[in-house]
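From the pipeline queue, job 12 of 40. The input is one protein chain; the requested action is below.

Action: predict structure.
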Amino acid sequence: MDSVRSPEWPVAPLGGIAANSAAARYGSPTGPQPAASAPPPAHRSPATGVAAVPRPAPAAAPPIPVKILIAGGFGVGKTTTVGAISEIAPLTTEAEMTSAGIGIDDPGVRSTKTTTTVAMDFGCVTIDRSLKLYLFGTPGQARFGFMWDDLARGALGALVVVDSARLDDCYAAIDFFERAGLPFVVGVNAFDGRLAHDLDAIRWALAVGDHVPLVQFDARDRLSVRDALLVVLDRALERATRERKS
């Protein structure tokens, strides 16, 4: 499947990270709060005459944590993807690019990128009361490839971010997840709102089968990133269901 829709989240107000917090997303009552009601009086059992104290309601179960990787080549929008949807201030390990990286780190002619991820990105987002995603963004340069095995440990799926103008940079990520047997979705980042090639041509160039979802999304837009992550969840759930039946 190429897309999965879910109930629309409220559009986040302007204000950066703070506007994308859980409090801003779901809101909180602004009017006067009703006074707390007194606990119901204890009643006595007719048989024993002993007062029975009402039992407190059981606490709600915490949401299930799900680890998702955000992977791809250098400068394709992984850090932007995590930051666009994280409900906390995302952890980033950005370092300034220097002249030593000329000819090694190429973000493409359209990029104004001046920093690069040297370890990982981290953010989280609560999907609903029962599910919370923990997002780990991988470094894109080949020299940091040794970290991918550790970052992938315990992950249920991955979103491979692709720049349609630099498809060569994402082959390594696709090969990694195919070898690891980890469900993944290819998300083509629409830089400037457009793609260099259509999705069918991109699928052919990447040589990925029809069983691998390929979607277009905007790494800067929270709702667009959400929809891409929901496809990853659907793919992981399909894989888990299939393995349970086998």
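Job complete. The helical segments are 22-26, 78-85, 148-152, 171-180, 199-206, 222-245.
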